[in-house]
Amino acid sequence: MCDVSVVIVNYNTWHLLRDCLASVLADAAESGLQVEVVVVDNGSTDGSPERVARHFPQVRLIRNARNVGYAAGTNQGIRASSGRNLLLLNSDTVVRPGALREMCAKLDARQDLAGVAPKLTNPDGTVQQSCWLFPLRALVVHVFGLGRLRLVDDYRSWDHRYDREVPWVSSAALMVPRRVLERVGLLDEEFFYGVDTDWCHRARRMGYRFLSLASAEVVHYGRGSRQGPLDAPFAGGPHVQDRYVRKHYGSWGAALFRGLLFFGALPRLVAWEVRHRLRPDPLADARRALYRRLLTHALMRR
Q1: CA 160: distance to chain centroid?
Q2: Distances (CA, A) of 175 to 190, 194, 204, 250
Q3: Which residues are CB-contacts of 56 (< 8 A; sequence separation ≥ 6)?
């Protein structure tokens, strides 16, 4: 059993995957850890699997004939790996020096941790939000403006200058212990997006915690196969949240979610419609489209 297995699911992102693999292998060589890298290719047509085999022969490559989705591909990689810790990593990332060693050390130091996540940054060095409240609470905070009033911290303004326990983290870069995965279970393949929210929820219900790190850093370009939250206040979009709420809270939770969505979106849509009529601009157009989408989802029959 090695120290860390890095599992990467790829779908037509060779131009990003190349830099990702180079950064992982460089950091692994300097870390003093035994690291294996597993790439699961989901039927790419951009030559990704052939190029991985040619340029990175030390990487274990699993080729799927079709795109089976992020969750199924990740589960394949996990089953094929041997590390006592697993780093789930998006192909559109670059691992900064020392990140693997820091994540592994923090994870090994606490038995109550289900996962540690590095500080995600944008290519320009600014902090990218990578941790959130769980969906129902996040929606309550957004609807009533509790985040803007600073009554509840929704992590949008957190600068990541120190380690902090958080409710859940993005699987763009998430290291988890194999022993926890064996207890909590693999990713739910019914989710196309939002698998990280669901898995973190299941782990939290079993008493585990998540830690977001300040010293480990990963650059996330966000231009690969789209994963993670689509809009920060809604943690993946209404369809993702609806599936999550129905799974974990049943019909009453779904009704509450839709009610909050409706009463939160309606006054905001009205406000942005007024702004658009007074002074048209791209921001107003984008917000009007967002709140119309949310209202439509809230009123859909199930």
Answers
A1: 17
A2: 22, 17, 15, 30
A3: 21, 25, 37, 39
Which is nearest to 189 in space by CA: 80, 106, 76, 301? 76
> How would you classify the pairing of strands 113-121 and 209-220?
parallel
Where are the domains positioned within the chain?
4-234, 238-299
Superfamily of structural domain 4-234:
Spore Coat Polysaccharide Biosynthesis Protein SpsA; Chain A (3.90.550.10)
Q: What is the pLDDT of residue 229?
A: 38
d(CA 114, CA 302): 34
Q: Which residue has the tokens 């992590």?
A: 155
pLDDT tops 60 at residue 235: no
Task: Say how far apart CA 6 and CA 17 lie, in whole Å.
Answer: 13
Closest CA to 92 of 35, 37, 33, 24: 24
Confidence bin at 179 (pLDDT 50/70/90): very high
Q: In residues, how long is the chain?
A: 302
Q: Which amino acid is at 77?
A: G
